[in-house]
Design brief:
The structure holds 2 protein chains of 2 kinds.
Chain A: H1 20-43, H2 62-93, H3 95-110, H4 113-127, H5 133-160, H6 164-172, H7 177-206, H8 208-212, E1 213-214, E2 221-222, H9 226-235, H10 239-268, H11 285-292, H12 294-311, H13 335-365, H14 368-404, H15 407-422, H16 429-439, H17 443-446, H18 449-452, H19 456-469, H20 472-480, H21 485-519, E3 521-524, E4 527-530, H22 534-544, H23 547-580
Helix pairs in contact in A: 2-3, 2-5, 2-7, 2-10, 3-5, 3-23, 4-5, 5-7, 7-10, 7-15, 9-10, 10-11, 13-23, 14-19, 14-21, 14-23, 15-19, 19-21, 21-22, 21-23, 22-23
Chain B: E1 5-15, E2 21-32, E3 36-41, H1 48-56, E4 63-68, E5 71-72, E6 80-83, H2 95-105, H3 110-123, H4 139-151, E7 157-161, H5 169-184, E8 192-197, H6 200-206, E9 209-214, E10 219-225, H7 237-251, H8 256-260, H9 280-291, E11 302-303, H10 304-311, H11 315-327, E12 331-334, E13 337-340, H12 342-348, H13 352-366, H14 368-379, E14 384-386, H15 387-394, H16 400-417, E15 421-423, E16 428-430
Helix pairs in contact in B: 2-3, 2-4, 3-4, 4-5, 6-7, 9-11, 9-12, 12-13, 13-14, 13-16, 15-16
The chains are: A mainly alpha, B alpha/beta.
């Protein structure tokens, strides 16, 4: 937060006298510090693998668990941010890096979180022997993998679209690479990065149980936290505890939304590149409060000065050294082409090599039939996802259009849907199991809705955004000409929201693959219901730590996700962009 | 006296997909001296902005020598500063922070930075807006920030890329005179201004030397020295006659050969001609203005300067239009005057359907690209072809983007003339009527 106003206001800044707001801010900040300090110590307690950590279902333990969960999420968030800014910048600035990073991220995005956990848990435990830090880091890493990729892509995309004239201005005024990064690149990427960070937090919650209650490779570790609390409640079939967990989650999400994201979003409005006059899109009582407090102004000034000092740090001010004479005949510039070829050669060699090793590893341990079987399982899961996307679209497209046309309703629906997107599927296990057992329903069909539980909201979000961005004129025209019913949908609503809908459905489908691992195996107390599918396959073998089969399962899932994206969604998306996008 | 900036045989070309090169600037020789304001005047797409960026060090010339104070320039140098057409302000920085940007980059301490920036802000008349964000400001105020940001680093040379073209007339005039004030009272160590513009009267008002730019490839055709004292007024007869000279210079550029021939010769174009980005309605409008029967016969010859004034068109709008009227054989342009041809007059006084017929016949006769496409479609099976094929052929002459633009213009004219149809979804050109 930069606040330089005192330096050029006509009147001198008043002497620092606390006002009531200062006390409120002080109180909040100290409470946070205190909580952080006391939890930080706990993370490093001695621990041996095999030990069970006591997780109690007493609701009084929940605030503590909540704080620990939140700290894990924020540590993961911190690393995601660092990752997004460094790797995203690298990919945007260097062509050669881009050609490796972007496809890699595409694949990593489709690797399920449990996959990362099963591969890394052993390594982390080995890194920190005899300490809880190992499993802690494994959990944080798992949360990281559910947050980092889309944040990185958002930074990459923003940096790719920095307007030319701003770039030229930065060069013209001799900003060093370091200064340009802070003065141009970061601010430009900020609004979309923040939005993606918020989405990532929701994604983190969805897989929280898997990340905290680690049951992979025959390790049964339950880290103190809300995820473990939920896992324990499910194991003990304790409905009241599930209720407590939901309440705790709701409160935590509400708190960090109000205390952190709202103020940040409001603050980031100034980074929006559109040079239009202010329109009040969001409001934050916390930010207004902060801006009113004297104490904050002093702190803000200090922070402003230190940021200034960092950005303009003398030894980082290396001038972009004048490039060696490039005024050469084109014939002499060939070497860069040779380098490119060389680079390509290395990439392809590594790719082919690792593919060979991967296939070899799987085929050494498994036979061809098993591979075919896993592809068959993948097909079953694919059918589920296709059917679910169709059903979810039939429900949420009309709802989204209805909501989008009513801004007041949209303001209420958006945060609710955001909370629902964070809602872990595990919390619905009791409901699903009880229904299936009571009415003896088909497991193959009735566990499936869990897969789309978290991701269907992306369809709703995007449809709302589409419907509300449509110019009012068009609605009036439709009304004026008496467009009714199907004709209204066919000629107005559907084409208008189409590009938005595709974006939402694409995200929803991708997420559903990931969620299948949680959704195809449903437990409640002693009852475990297993549906046939790729998700269940991966889940099963992750628990016993059968690496060849985990690798096979994950590999096949990646192939399905990428094939769907490339062959179906990408094409639809391009068409939608070309044909239906307004402006 | 040595030139501040010296350009010797600067060429710039861009690579094209087929390994040929697209020549944008050809053999530019130019010296900028201390104490002068130079205006670079030309139509859009003539490469004048590219030349400015080469001088700024933002774009590398393909060959040639560029020197600032006798040292070769490779990349932006201290001492040369720039004002951008669309301001290029960082929207997340306040006015003060934006102005400070260049000083920050030089590693100047915070307090001195602030002092100098505040002074620059005062000079350019922005005081009171220090803490505002660019989006709170009007276009004119934003460009003031752009000027303050450029001046605060105490440059020798100020480059301006159509600095007033994004502003309305009054605001532009106001900012222009304020800037000239700063220049004349020597409030900064500024030694030279180079201003790219397409506004003829702007060039006449500010410049000590006007360089008239010609396109395809870009080169300096004429140089006009101006010895009028500042401040100049557009209504001053001397300024008026200067503007008239500039119009004449701009229209007689390519008429050298015409003068040799005994009678007027239209500028006939070939397949690789850069069709201007013009709507049929604009052509029609201009023809109506000069060729309607309401006008007396002798009044059908128009002074371009008067026409530009009465229609509120600047060079960027007017010249492509008169070029098009010329090569379509609808009007003759000579020495700053324009007059309709008989066909042009007939067109101006026809009804909609007749107009389409006249336009179609001229299009097929005088625009080789349209003729070629029609010919290909006539002989194609089903009379359908993908636009891709024509784009490929046009890319022999233009960049990919430019080829697309030229084809789009040709399609638009042809649609009006109903000589062929186009479907945007499958990008197919055809002779069919739409369903």
């Amino acid at each position: 937060m930069k606040n330089n106003q005192q330096y050029f206001f006509p009147h001198k800044p008043e002497a620092w006298r606390p006002n009531p707001w200062d006390f409120i801010i002080f109180f909040i900040i100290f409470a946070i510090f205190f909580a952080l300090a006391s939890i930080g110590g706990d993370m490093n307690t001695p621990y041996e693998v095999g030990e069970t950590l006591p997780i109690t279902l007493d609701p009084r333990a929940l605030p503590g668990y909540g704080v620990r969960t939140v700290i894990r999420m924020f540590i993961a968030m911190f690393f995601s941010l660092v990752f997004a800014l460094t790797i995203g910048t690298l990919a945007a600035k260097y062509k050669r890096a881009e050609r490796v990073i972007i496809p890699a991220i595409d694949i990593l995005q489709s690797v399920p979180i449990l996959g990362f956990l099963s591969i890394t848990i052993v390594g982390f435990i080995w890194l920190f022997p005899g300490s809880l830090l190992g499993p802690e880091f494994a959990a944080i890493f798992a949360i990281f993998t559910s947050q980092a990729w889309n944040m990185m892509l958002s930074v990459y995309q923003s940096l790719k679209t920095v307007p030319d004239d701003l770039r030229e201005a930065a060069r013209m005024f001799h900003l060093s690479a370091w200064q340009r990064f802070w003065r141009l690149d970061i601010p430009f990427a900020m609004p979309s990065l923040l939005w993606n960070t918020m989405m990532s937090m929701s994604g983190g919650w969805f897989f929280l149980v898997a990340a905290e209650a680690i049951s992979v490779s025959n390790q049964e570790i339950m880290l103190p936290g809300i995820g473990s609390y939920i896992a324990m409640a499910i194991e003990r079939a304790n409905l009241t505890a599930v209720g407590y967990a939901i309440a705790a989650m709701l409160i935590i999400i509400l708190l960090y939304d109000q205390l952190l994201f709202r103020p940040l979003i409001k603050w980031s409005e100034k980074f929006k590149a559109e040079q239009a006059a202010y329109d009040e899109t969001s409001r934050s009582w916390v930010l207004s409060l902060l801006r009113r407090a004297h104490f904050w102004r002093v702190i803000g000034g200090a922070i402003g000065r230190s940021i200034d000092a960092i950005i303009n740090c003398r030894w980082l001010l290396t001038k972009p050294t004048a490039k060696p004479t490039h005024i050469l005949p084109p014939a002499l510039r060939v070497p860069s082409k040779v380098m490119n070829l060389f680079w390509d050669f290395i990439i392809y060699a590594v790719a082919i090599g690792s593919f060979a090793i991967f296939v070899n590893f799987i085929l050494q341990n498994l036979n061809f039939q098993e591979v075919a079987h896993v592809f068959y399982l993948g097909a079953i899961t694919a059918v589920r996802i296709v059917v679910l996307i169709i059903i979810a679209s039939l429900i949420w497209v009309p709802v989204g259009v209805w909501v989008g046309m009513r801004p007041k309703v949209a303001q209420i629906v958006q945060p609710v849907a955001q909370f629902l997107a964070a809602f872990p599927a595990n919390l619905l296990f009791p409901l699903v199991v009880l229904m299936i057992v009571k009415y003896s329903l088909n497991i193959e069909i009735w566990t499936t809705p869990l897969m789309i539980l978290g991701t269907q909201w992306y369809i709703l979000f995007n449809v709302i955004a589409g419907a509300s961005s449509l110019p009012k004129d068009l609605y009036h025209v439709a009304e004026n000409f008496g467009l009714k019913k199907w004709l209204w949908w066919k000629r107005l609503a559907l084409p208008a929201i189409f590009p938005f809908y595709i974006t939402g459905a694409l995200t929803a489908a991708g997420g559903a693959w990931n969620a299948s691992i949680v959704a195809e195996v449903v437990c409640w107390g002693d009852v475990t219901l297993i549906a046939t599918g790729l998700g269940a396959y991966i889940h099963e073998y992750t628990e016993i730590g059968d690496f060849p089969r985990i690798a096979l399962g994950i590999g096949v899932m990646c192939i399905y996700v990428i094939a769907f994206n490339r062959l179906f969604w990408q094409k639809l998306y391009n068409r939608a962009e070309a044909r239906y996008r307004l402006n | 006296m040595d030139a501040l900036i010296k350009l010797e045989t600067i060429r710039k070309s861009f690579p094209k997909p087929d390994k040929q090169e697209l020549l944008v600037l050809e053999d530019i020789d130019l010296n900028l001296h201390e104490g002068e304001i130079v205006a670079l005047l030309g139509k859009s797409g003539s490469g004048k902005s590219t030349l400015l960026r080469i001088i700024a060090g933002l774009v590398e010339p393909s060959s040639g020598m560029l020197k600032y104070k006798n040292k070769p320039v490779r990349g932006p140098v201290q001492g040369i500063s720039m004002v951008f057409q669309h301001f290029a302000l960082m929207p997340w920085l306040t006015v003060l922070q934006n102005v400070e940007l260049g000083l920050e980059a030089q590693g100047i301490p915070r307090d001195e930075r602030r002092k100098r920036s505040l002074k620059a802000i005062d000079t350019i008349g922005l005081d009171g807006f220090e803490s505002a964000f660019p989006k709170e400001l009007s276009g004119g105020m934003r460009q003031r920030v752009g000027v303050a940001r450029a001046l605060v680093v105490n440059p020798d040379v100020l480059l301006m890329d159509e600095p007033f073209s994004a502003l309305d007339v009054l605001t532009a005039e106001n900012l222009r005179s304020d800037l000239l004030n700063v220049w004349q009272e020597k409030q900064t160590p500024l030694k030279c201004i180079l201003c790219v513009t397409h506004d003829i009267s702007e060039a006449a008002i500010i410049a000590d030397r006007i360089l008239v730019f010609d396109s395809d490839p870009g080169c300096i055709r004429t140089e006009i020295k101006v010895d009028l004292p500042h401040p100049r007024n557009e209504d001053d007869p001397k300024v008026k006659s200067l503007i008239d000279d500039i119009y004449t210079a701009m229209t007689s550029m390519k008429t050298d050969e015409r003068l040799v021939a005994a009678q007027y010769k239209h500028n006939d174009i070939d397949f690789g001609y850069r069709l201007p980005d013009i709507e049929v309605s604009e052509l029609t409008g201009l023809l109506e203005e000069i060729g309607s029967d309401g006008n007396e016969a002798d009044k059908k010859v128009h002074h371009l300067q008067d026409l530009a004034e009465s229609l509120h068109l600047d060079v960027d709008d007017l010249f492509p239009l008169i070029d098009a009227l010329d090569f379509m054989h609808f009007a003759r342009i000579d020495e700053g005057d324009i007059a309709p041809t008989p066909a042009g007059e007939k067109f101006a006084n026809a009804d909609i359907l007749e107009r389409k017929e006249i336009f179609a016949s001229h299009l097929l006769q005088y625009v080789p690209l349209a003729k070629y496409i029609r010919h290909k479609l006539d002989s194609a099976p089903n009379h359908r072809m993908n636009e891709e094929k024509f784009l490929d052929e046009l890319e022999q002459y233009f960049s990919e983007e430019e080829a697309k633009r030229v084809l789009t213009t040709a399609i638009e004219w042809a649609r009006y003339a109903e000589i062929f149809a186009y479907n945007v979804n499958n990008r197919v050109l055809s002779l069919e009527d739409p369903d």
